Structure formats: structure tokens, C-alpha cells
Amino acid sequence: MSSSFGTLFRISTFGESHCAGVGVVVDGVPSRLKLEASDIQVQLDRRRPGQSQLATERNEADQVEILSGVENGLTLGSPIALLVRNKDQRPQDYGSMSQIPRPSHADLTYRQKYGIHASSGGGRSSARETIGRVAAGAIAEKFLALEYGIDIVAWVSSVGTVDAGAIDFSAVTRQQVDASEVRCPDQAAAALMSKQILEARQDKDSIGGVLTCVCRNLPAGLGEPAFDRLEARLAQAMLSIPATKGFEIGSGFVGATMRGSLHNDPYGFENGRLTTLTNHSGGVQGGISNGENVYFRIAFKPPATIGLAQQTVDYQGNKVTLEARGRHDPCVVPRAVPIVESMAALVIADLALIQKMRQPL
Fold first, then answer.
1. In this structure, are residues 207 and 337 in contact, taking their beta carbons and an 8 Å threshold?
2. Are 219 and 291 in contact (CB under 8 A)?
3. pTM score > 0.90 for this model?
4. Cα(19)–Cα(229) distance, rounded to whole angstroms?
């Protein structure tokens, strides 16, 4: 199903960027999990538009409504339906562009696939669809924290040519990440990143960046051999996020430049268990978590919608000059942080439930 994700912990998102609302149905959440709307809202607040000059000016509160599956603050084990109503949609902003396939957008490919596409915004390809993912991911995160003590933190590690450098994976917190509007825990780098984003915005242009995410306290054993390897499921999840263009786990592409004698992770024995002395594997070996920190990076392209004039053609092949209207992010990475965390939580929750099936009666 094109709008569904997961095996046991399964979600189905719905809605377009300028329709009445967007949301998600979450199936497979264990019963009697304590859950309030506020547990979900905290991540939606981090994702919502209008937070700063670094983001789109669209003003949405993104207040979540729990429609089913929860009673008296406890999950029932039945599907949980979550809805966020669109309040500040402006489909009229897109009237002049309805006959022009916007460069690097999905207008043309959706029309080629379905014979029709949403006339305003990006429709299902808009990042507004990720509201459902973040809402569902917040539930997954609470389950993982209570059941396993799993902690997931993502941050902006580069914007354009500015790189934050090394961050301590074992200690970085969301509080440190959210201390800057750009969501980079390195304050000096954060200031330079913000400057590049604001410059791109002033130039009616856009800029890309990279996020890093660490998942801590995973038990060993999560991930299925061959096709549902942990890193494969994470890669699918991350590359399904709009504007993503690259994924690497552990040493990633740098590992391809190393010799095995340097890249191998030797074992040691600490606190009563085997542990790796290094972590070039990114916490995954043979597609299965080994109990170390799982960390990965995701590359995001510059947003396709820019105010600069672009020479292109309309659907009939006539040459036109496109100057996009509407309210759009000059850089998506600050608001993508909770999306990445949520998708990671959904993958891990699903694999954790699958592993639970293997426990002896």
C-alpha cells in the first residue's frame, strides 16, 4: 500500500497539503500504553511551520485530535486515528502555476502516474504529509522509551558548506539540539548555518543540508536477515521523507576508503557483556542491532520551490518563466529533525514487536 508503512506496528497516512486536514491511522500499538494528546503534540510542535525566519511563514498550530483507540488515557489495542486540521491553507497561491510542472517537484510524475494531481501545493508529495508520520512516531517513541529505555536524538550536522563537525553521540540531547533555531547543538556552527539559510531566503533561493541521528539503548537482536535488515528498513524510512537524497549508516561512504584492519570493530568486555571498542558498524552487524549506538546520516536537497525566475515549459511545451508563489521553507533540515526521529522510532518499534514474537512461551 503506497501510504502505509510497517509490519506489526503499522501506519497509514492520509491528506494533502491544502485539503481540510491530514493525519494517520496507527495499528499494532500495544494496549494499556499511557497516551495523551500532549505526548504527541510535543513532536508536532517541533515540526510545525512558522517557527522562525528559517522556515515557511505558513501559520499552522498543528493541534492533534485523537479520534479513536484511546480511552481514559490508555491505548485500547485497536487502531488509533489521529487528525490535524489545516487552518492556513491558501490554494489560490497556486492558481497561476497549475498548468506548469514546477522544476524538481512531483507535479509531472504524479500526473503521469495517476492522470491527475493536486492543484495546490505538493499534494501527497508535500512535506505536510509527514504530520501523520510524526504523530505516529511520537507514539512509537513513548512505547520504546517505556519498554526498552530507547532514546532517539537527531540534529542538523550541516547546512550548505557549514559543517558542525564531531558531536558526542553518547551525550547529545534534544534540549541541546533545540537551543538554536537551526537545531544544531554546536552553537558556533548553528550561527553560520542560520546565516546561510537567511542569505538563501533573501536571494529568493534555497539551500540543502544533512541530519545526523543516534538511537541509544537498543537491545541486541533487532532486524531481520536478509531483506528486512535494520539498516535497510532505516534507509527505506529515511529515503521516503520528502527532499531526501542520501543515506549512510555508521562509517558510511568514508568506510569505503578504509582498510579492514582499521574499519573492523574489535570486541571488549564491559559491564558484564561483550561490546565493541569502536563503532564503525553504526550499531548494526549482519543487519541486526548489536547493542551499540545506532547512528546514521541523511542528506536533504534544497527545497524545489524558489522565488527566483526559472525558465521552463508548461504542460503543452510552451516556454514560460516561472516565479513561484506560496510560502515555503528556504531549507528543510531544521524542521526535518522530528520527522527523522519519528521514522526511526517507527522502524525500531516495528522490529521490536517482531523480535518479541520470538520469545519463548
1. no
2. yes
3. yes
4. 36
- The C-alpha atoms of residue 7 and residue 11 are separated, in whole angstroms, by 9
Integer Cα distance of 318 and 315 in angstroms: 8
Distance CA 63, CA 61 (A): 6
What is the Cα–Cα distance from 353 to 26, expressed in whole angstroms?
A: 14
The DSSP line for 308-326 is S-EEEE-TT--EEEE---S
Q: How far apart are CA 330 and CA 197, in angstroms?
A: 6
For range 64-73, the mean pLDDT: 97
pLDDT value for 359: 77
Q: Is the pLDDT of residue 295 over 80?
A: yes
Q: Based on C-alpha coordinates, what's the Rg of the chain?
A: 21
Domain ranges across the chain: 4-356
The helix/strand/coil state of 217 is coil
Residues in the chain: 361
Q: What are phi and psi of 163, to 5 degrees?
A: -120, 135
Question: How confident is the model over 149-187, as pLDDT tens digits?
Answer: 999 999 999 999 999 988 999 999 999 999 999 999 999
The 10s digit of each residue's pLDDT in 270-293 is 989 999 999 999 999 999 999 999
Transcribe 179-213 into DSSP letters. TSTT--S-HHHHHHHHHHHHHHHHTT----EEEEE
Single-letter amino acid, residue 82:
L
Q: Taking Cα atoms as reference points, which of 354, 336, 358, 343 lies closest to residue 11? A: 343
Residue 13: φ, ψ to 5°: -90, 155
Which residues make beta-bridge pairs with 155?
Answer: 212
Phi-psi region of 42 (alpha: psi -120 to 50; beta: other; left: phi over 0): alpha
* CATH code for the domain defined by 4-356: 3.60.150.10
- The burial class, CB within 10 Å (0-12 / 13-18 / 19+), for 194 is buried
In terms of Cα–Cα distance, which of 15, 12, 79, 86 is closest to 48?
86
The answer to whether 185 touches 177, Cβ cutoff 8 Å, is yes
